[in-house]
Each structure stands twice: as C-alpha cells, then as structure tokens.
Design a protein that fits this description.
By secondary structure, this protein is of the alpha/beta class. It has helices at residues 19-29, 46-56, 81-94, 104-108, 110-117, 130-139, 181-188, 208-212, 221-233, 250-262, 282-290, 305-310, 317-330, 347-360, 378-383, 419-427, 451-458, 465-473; strands spanning 3-8, 34-39, 61-65, 99-102, 121-123, 150-154, 157-160, 191-193, 196-197, 217-218, 238-241, 270-275, 293-301, 333-340, 364-369, 371-372, 394-396, 408-410, 433-434.
Length: 479
C-alpha cells in the first residue's frame, strides 16, 4: 500500500494548527493510502523526532507544508524560509523518500520555492486530489508529470502544471482527528475551520484568489456543522473561520448559521469570523450572533471612498456605517482592519479614516501600514515588474528578488518620512487602535511572538487574537 508522511514544522508562536494537513490526511485515507502525520511544532529536538519516525516507517513520499513565507509585517522583517530549509535538510538526512512541498504560502511562489528549497516536487493550490495521485504514481513507478498543480523538473527547467480545484461537496467529512486540536486550542487559543474556498473579489493587493482560486466553492453547511461538533467533542470550543470572507455569498453564511443552530452547537462553542463589509446586514448579524458567533474582523481597509476604489474594494463608507450599526445592535464584538499607505493614500484621507473609526466605535481597529506585494496581484504587476524601474515607494528586499519571494512592501512616499509618528499622533491614547509598532507591547499588531498575547492565552484567554488582547487590556475575564 502506498504510504505518506505529512510534516508540519511551523515554529511561530502562538501555534496555529495546520488545518490543511488535518483535511488532507482525511482525504488521503479514502485513496487506500497509509498516512502518518508528524507535527514538529511540539518537538524540542526535530532531528530526533524525525529519526525516530523514519526508523519505524518508510513512506513512498514525504509531504511538507509551508503556511507562511514571512510574517507580512513591514516592521518585523521575519522570514520563515531559513527554518523551513533546516527542517528539509533534516528530512533529507532521515529518509530517502521523495520530498514534496505544498501549503498556502507555497502556492503563491510555486516555482521560486521549488527551486530555492531544492525539493523533488511541489504542489500548487490544493492537495486533496493531487497528492494521492502523486503518491500512487510514485508507488507504481509511473510518470507523475501530468498531475494537476504539480511542480517538477523537466529538460526545459521547472514546470508548474495548472492546478485543479476540488469540488468540496465530494471531499470526505472532516472529523478533525489527525491533529492534537485540543493542544493547539490550549496553547494557541483557538481552532480553525473552513466553510468555503476561493475568492472572486478584485482587491488589487490580495493573494487569496492567487492561492485558493478565483471561484468561490462552497462546503455543505451540514458537513461544516458536523466538523464543528467533532471539534467540540475534543474540547475545542473557541474557533475562527479560515475563509477569505465568511459572508460571501451571504446566503451560504446564513445556511451555515442555520446548520450550527440545528445541531444544537450555538451554546457549546464561540466563534469569530472574517467578513466583508459590503455584504453584511442586520439579518446576518442577528443570525451569526444567535449561532454562537462572538466577534467579526471586517476588512474595512479605509474610510475614504476614493481610496477604497483605488484598492479595488466594492464597499464604501456607507457600508461601514451600516455594518457597525448592525454589530452594535446585536452585541457582536468587531474589528475594522485598515490598510494604509497603498498607492494614492494621503494624510488627509487617513485622518478622515481615523475620525470615522472613532465615530463608528468598533471594538478594535487593526492598522497595517504598508502593503506586502504578492505575485499574481494587480498591485505587484503595476509596481514590481522586473521590466519597470524601481518605484520610490517600494521597501524591503529589492535586489535579485523579482519573484517577490522575500518581503517587498509599498508605502506611499507622499505620506512623508515621519508617517509613523503622524499615525501614532492620530491614534494616541486610544487603546482601540492596534498600531504597527514593535515597541508598543499590547498595541502591537504583529501576533508572531507577541509575548502579552501568549501570556493571555496561558492565563486562559481564548478566541481571535485581537479580541484576546482587547479583553486583557480592558481587564475582562477570559472568554
């Protein structure tokens, strides 16, 4: 029987469960493939853990997931790639099995990561269909080169096959039995789940359509509720959606809420969601709250209609006003995420945005200053083409980085060299604003290695990270 080892080596803290591997392992079982999952997140000695695993198990293939390439944080300059290379080198020492890399981050840079990591294969986009085909082809000594999404070497160089996105209705029920989800909940503060994949929006900066497809594919709401029931049975009672936007389409979001209610889960769990402001209304707010939703993170981006149009967003300030009113009315904690410093942004527009936030009174306002450029997005094509001279607003790894594998950000030069001080002045003394300042402690909007956040989780706080920080600052009890 073909066999595969799936490896997670994410070292970020707080730890985030590798949802893709939990789903992937369940799908692999249906293809008569023996699956072992090796989660190095909990291992103090990865080399010893790998040696012990492969001493007793010789798989046909080893799959390695890469969730992030960096922390997407202009002030942080953190890259995940050195750690990934170290683990892959240890894998080479521990087993002769071919190595394949996949994951959300990998799907953004399939050729570049294939070459820089030196693996045998890559899988762009989803693995539930492609990985079983690859394992079976290798077990039969067949040529795998036509498998959808496969990245491989040929006589012509690196080849990236077009991906094939799964019909989610044909995937098995995800009972979430492969990971130690309870431990991730205890040490990471939350669990995750999907209700759909893909995004059909036209935001100029967003990588979700590149990695997950530009067509929204829906899961059966009843299967989502069964999955949540399984997690609750494991003791995982605080969860966050991993969808691009939970409420797109709105009717599906309502159906998921109804399925949660029908299964009697609303009083047994608390969940948070990412949502789009333009498709949110009073009815959805009421249904989500009744189904156990506690809080929502809205991608507001800006409070100026002209800048929202430049960003390719389909909502406007009036939508933010309606959204805030609905959340306040139905007791939903909510955050507006802002994306400041994109092309065309102005100090006047930003001051107007901060004033709007104060008036609408979200529970928190997340501020990203500077926009990470990703290949395949309209913004990257406009600003970071190797055929164009370097734009004065670009920051980060600019030399020999045409594929943007290492972080490159855009920050509108017209905002001035003292923009950080200006932003701090606008938000001063208001704890609702999470600002991009690595020295600001609880106001720090970078969750990686956020010590106050980790301390709060250790003290029993659970839920969305921005909400954990809110409750800790306001001396509210853990959720």
């Amino acid at each position: 029987m073909p066999a595969v080892t799936l490896v997670n080596a994410n070292e970020m803290r707080p730890p985030i469960g590798p949802l893709a591997l939990d789903y992937l392992a369940a799908a692999m079982e249906t293809f008569e493939c023996e699956v072992r999952l090796l989660d190095l997140t909990w291992e103090s000695d990865p080399a010893a853990a790998l040696a012990a695993h492969f001493r007793d198990f010789q798989p046909t293939l080893v799959g390695f997931t890469l969730r992030n390439t960096d922390d997407c944080y202009l002030a942080g300059h953190y890259s995940c790639l050195p750690h990934a290379r170290r683990i892959l080198a240890l894998l080479r020492q521990a087993t002769d099995a071919p190595l394949v890399v996949g994951g959300c981050a990998y799907s953004l840079f399939p050729a570049a990561l294939f070459e820089t990591l030196g693996v045998d294969y890559g899988l762009a986009s989803e693995g539930e269909l492609a990985l079983p085909l690859l394992v079976q082809a290798l077990a039969r000594r067949e040529d795998p080169s036509t498998i959808p999404g496969l990245v491989h070497r040929s006589s012509h160089g690196t080849v990236v096959n077009p991906p094939q996105f799964a019909d989610l209705s044909r995937l098995p029920l995800f009972r979430r039995e492969w990971l130690d989800n309870r431990r991730y909940w205890l040490e990471g503060g939350q669990g995750g789940f999907e209700t759909k994949r893909g995004c059909n929006r036209a935001c100029i900066y967003c990588a979700d359509p590149v990695a997950k497809g530009r067509v929204v594919r829906l899961r059966d709401p009843r299967q989502v509720a069964l999955e949540l029931d399984s997690l609750v049975a494991q003791g995982v009672t605080h969860l966050h959606t991993c969808d691009a936007e939970f409420n797109l389409p709105r009717e599906h979001a309502l159906a998921v809420c109804d399925a949660i209610l029908d299964r009697g889960l609303a009083d047994r769990l608390a969940w948070w969601a990412y949502c789009a402001p333009g498709s949110f209304d009073d009815e959805l707010a009421e249904r989500m709250r009744r189904a156990g939703c506690v809080g929502i993170d809205f991608g507001a981006d800006h409070g100026d209609d002209a800048q929202l149009a430049r960003l390719g967003r389909d909502h406007r300030v009036a939508d933010l006003e309606r959204t805030a009113k609905a959340c306040h009315q139905h007791g939903l904690i909510f955050m507006f995420d802002l994306l400041l410093g994109a092309p065309g942004d102005t100090r006047e527009g930003i001051a107007k945005t901060i004033e709007l936030m104060r008036r609408l009174e979200p529970s928190r306002v997340g501020i990203s200053a500077g926009v990470r450029l990703y290949p395949g997005t309209a913004l990257a094509s406009r600003l970071a083409s190797p055929l164009l001279p370097p734009h004065p607003g670009l920051l980060g790894e600019l030399d020999g980085n045409d594929n943007l594998l290492y972080p490159v950000f855009y920050l509108e030069p017209a905002l001035g060299p003292d923009f950080s001080a200006y932003l701090s002045e606008l938000t001063a003394s208001d704890s609702r604003f999470l600002v991009p300042d690595p020295e600001s402690g609880l106001a720090d909007y970078n969750y990686r290695e956020n010590l106050p956040l980790q301390a709060a989780i250790s003290a029993g706080y659970r839920g969305a990270y921005w909400d954990i920080l809110r409750r800790r600052v306001e001396n509210l009890p853990p959720a």
